[in-house]
Specification:
The structure holds 2 protein chains of 2 kinds. By secondary structure, chain A is mainly alpha-helical. In chain A, 70% of the residues lie in helices and 11% in strands. Chain A contains 4 helices and 3 strands; from the N terminus they run H-E-H-H-E-E-H. A 3-stranded antiparallel beta sheet of chain A has the order 1-3-2. In chain A, strand 2 and strand 3 form a beta hairpin. In chain A, 20% of the residues are buried. Chain B is mostly helical. Chain B has a 3-stranded antiparallel beta sheet, covered by helices on one side. Chain B starts with a helix and ends with a helix. Classes of the chains: A mainly alpha, B mainly alpha. At the A-B interface, helix 1, helix 2 and helix 3 of A face helix 3, helix 5 and helix 6 of B.
């Protein structure tokens, strides 16, 4: 068992947990959707491993915060589905999230290339 | 929270057309799962409770019908429920949220206490582990203090038996006429306890951390 791999796996779980809310809002903004479809969309497009149930407390909180709205749709001969759609408030929230996400990833990229360049310079200096 | 009401939640679901699975074994798995979920959300207001349970039933139904891997109905159900996860784990944050919301809104001590309980012990399983090990290490520290300070406070640290038969072990205010059974033997005994506890606790902590990953 490699500890470095364990550490990365742990870190990935944390990162995914952190972006799940944004991913859910993005998916709901694209189209009105219900829990099961939302989960399969996310796991497919993001290559996420997810305990499916964890999405429901999150949906319930987003609903309480009025970022998404919900309605029950009776299916002919089937089980009713609870559909979620984005609200104006949710739309504003996801736009703010996108801006913040761009700043964050840009910052990390810049830091990564800067530290790469510094490490290269130091390596070259030690060779001389 | 009578048992009767908890049953009626799932019974209500059972009466809805197309909700309960038709295959008997699949139905039994489904029923056990929904009963567990309904116990977890028993403290939610009725409307929220029914909403959560119907949404779970709806999820299971969609999940089962999407999975056409040629398995038996019972195995398909088992796989669907496993993907969904244990309601006791994933529903707790929702329960804690709702209890805290209502508790803080109405100054309701019962709801607040339950909400705090669920957010501490449900949201963070590691909290319980940390608490248990914290108490273990505290016990160890007390034995350490006993070993260190026996020489300075011989009548306050030891295993004392009073003339009336009362026995006191550890650190005490005033031992007066009590007999100090162990005398300075308490120092090596306490040091041994410290070492053994330290090794056992640390090993336990190490394996509990390894299990988490």
């Amino acid at each position: 068992v490699s500890t470095a791999q364990d550490a990365i796996a742990k870190w990935e779980v944390q990162v995914r947990k952190g972006v799940l809310e944004m991913v859910v809002l993005l998916t709901v903004r694209a189209a009105e959707t219900y829990g099961y479809e939302l989960i399969t969309d996310i796991t497919r497009s993001m290559n996420f491993e997810l305990t499916e149930g964890t999405i429901y407390p999150l949906l319930s909180r987003l609903h309480k915060e009025e970022l998404i709205a919900a309605r029950w749709v009776e299916a002919a001969g089937g089980v009713p589905r609870k559909y979620y759609r984005i609200t104006p408030r949710g739309r504003a929230a996801i736009e703010a999230m996108e801006a913040s996400w761009t700043r964050l990833t840009g910052g990390v990229q810049r830091l990564a290339s800067k530290t790469h360049a510094e490490a290269d310079r130091r390596r070259q200096a030690s060779h001389r | 929270m009578s048992r009767h009401r908890m049953h009626s939640d799932v019974e209500q679901l059972e009466r809805r057309p197309a909700v309960p699975p038709r295959d008997q074994e699949a139905h039994e798995l489904w029923h056990t799962y929904m009963e567990e979920a309904s116990r977890v959300v028993a403290d939610l207001p009725a409307a929220e409770r029914e909403d959560v349970l119907l949404e779970l039933a709806s999820h299971v139904s969609a999940s089962v019908s999407a999975d056409s891997g040629g398995l038996s109905e019972a195995d398909t159900m088992r796989a669907a429920l496993q993907r969904l996860g244990s309601p006791n784990e994933f529903l707790r944050p929702m329960l804690a949220d709702s209890l805290m919301d209502r508790g803080t809104a109405n100054y309701h001590p019962g709801l607040l206490a339950k909400g705090l309980y669920h957010s501490l012990f449900g949201g963070l399983k590691s909290f319980t582990v940390a608490l248990a090990f914290g108490l273990g290490y505290l016990t160890l520290a007390i034995f350490g203090v006993m070993a260190l300070f026996k020489a300075g406070f011989p009548r306050h640290i030891g295993y004392f038996v009073y003339p009336n038969g009362t026995r006191v072990f550890g650190i005490t205010g005033e031992s007066g006429t009590a007999r100090d059974i162990l005398g300075y033997w308490i120092v090596p005994i306490a040091i041994t306890v410290v070492i053994v506890l330290y090794v056992l606790l640390t090993r336990g902590l190490r394996s509990s951390r390894a299990r988490r990953t």
